[in-house]
Amino acid sequence: MLLYIDPGTGSMLFAILIGIIGAVHYVLRIAIVKIRFIISGGKKADIDLKKRIPYVIFSDNKRYWTQFEPICREFNKRGIDLVYMTASPDDPVLDCGYEHIEGRFIGEGNKAFATLNFLNADILLSTTPGLDVYQWKRSAGVKCYVHIYHQPGEVMLYRMFGVDYYDALLLGGEDQVADIRKLEELRNLPAKEVCTVGIPYMDEMVSRLKSDEEKQAGSGKEKAVEKAKEASEEVTVLLAPSWGESAIFSKFGGRIIEELLKTGYHVIVRPHPQSFTSEKELMEELMEKYPASDKLEWNRDVDNYEVLRRSDILISDFSGVFAFVYDKPVIYTDTEFDTAPYDAWWIKDITWTEKTLKSIGMMLTEDKIDSSSLKTMIDECLSSDIYANARKQAREERWEYPGEGAVRAVDYLVKKHEKLLADK
């Protein structure tokens, strides 16, 4: 017990150690370049430039390949080399087959961050928050850090200081800019570059959905599926809770699964991937108590495309993908969300997500966790035009340039790189 170090202290000590090593590494590197400059008779040493990587993407988990693949494909299409660094040993990028995309597994956890902290690159693109807050420190060798949002929701619902130390942000909609500027003003931060590009991940899902629909229509399968659905009148409900103290399972436990099964509808349970790590015992308990059957399935697919496509309605905290891409209704839970650990705490105003949820779906409260109430809510959400119209308005606010996200994102990165080279 005398040797025990709590996670918070361990993280702080690791950050201090990395900072010291990083400083020493940077000083030595500069000294070596200067020595080579003198030895070469005053000619510029290009050794560091040759090692510098023009474009890097960092992903902390393989599940983000679906977010980044459209961007990688656009880089590959243009014949531009890109290095994709991942913290997952089985990330799909490692055998993606794109000629100009080099996948590199850089280790898991702190090992990955240690590599990134000494990176020598012009531009690093990531969807991972927390740069320069915890273990992941800004490298003196990286010229520009760019964060891309992959959801239409709240820029303020990252953990506190999530994107403060990025240089630029790629947004889904212009509507998100105001909150970013508010946070910068409150924290006395320099204004970051912001560029509205749309949402490449959601563009990709729409493309896949349209392609599947066209294939089904061409084969006559679509009509057959519709007739079968009308005959059975079976509705598929997707229960996809988040994780943590304010999430669905923490508040309602397995009772919500039990009551949903009583409605007679088909139920798919898709917990957040983090639940199987942070709430492992709870997940094991629920899966044992409510085993898979003809009316219940547990889903852990890395790619959520198929499970979202098969579902008619979602019960969750919020899913912009489900409401915007699939244009299907949501039931959201009254979980008394605590903003204390998040950037939203600084703003105080009601968030866009809260306002939007009230218009595009119905709230599930403690007094409605029974099969009769659940069935009534599901049926009303599925049949009401009010929620469909609200989804359309929300899409227009937070998802600009549909179908153009990857092209616009790469356009920005290429122009940024050209400017960095010109400013040398």
How would you characterize this protein structure?
This protein is an alpha/beta fold. The protein folds into two domains: 38-201 and 403-422, Rossmann fold, CATH 3.40.50.2000; 222-398, Rossmann fold (3-Layer(aba) Sandwich). It is built from 18 helices and 13 strands. The strands form two sheets. The chain has a seven-stranded parallel beta sheet with strand order 3-2-1-4-5-6-7. It has a six-stranded parallel beta sheet with strand order 10-9-8-11-12-13. Residues 40-50 have low confidence and may be disordered.
Tell how many strands the DSSP assignment holds. 13
Count of all domains: 2
Largest sheet: 7 strands, parallel
CATH topological fold name of the largest domain: Rossmann fold
Query: What's the CATH class label of the largest domain?
Result: Alpha Beta
The neighbouring-strand order within the major sheet is 3-2-1-4-5-6-7
Structural class: alpha/beta
Distance between the termini: 53 Å
* Shape by Cα distribution: globular
**Which strand-content bin applies to the residues?**
5-15%
Helix content: 40-55%
C-alpha Rg, in Å?
24 Å
CATH 4th-level superfamily of the largest domain: Glycogen Phosphorylase B
Show unreliable segments: 40-50
The number of helical segments is: 18
The CATH architecture of the largest domain would be 3-Layer(aba) Sandwich
Mean pLDDT: 83
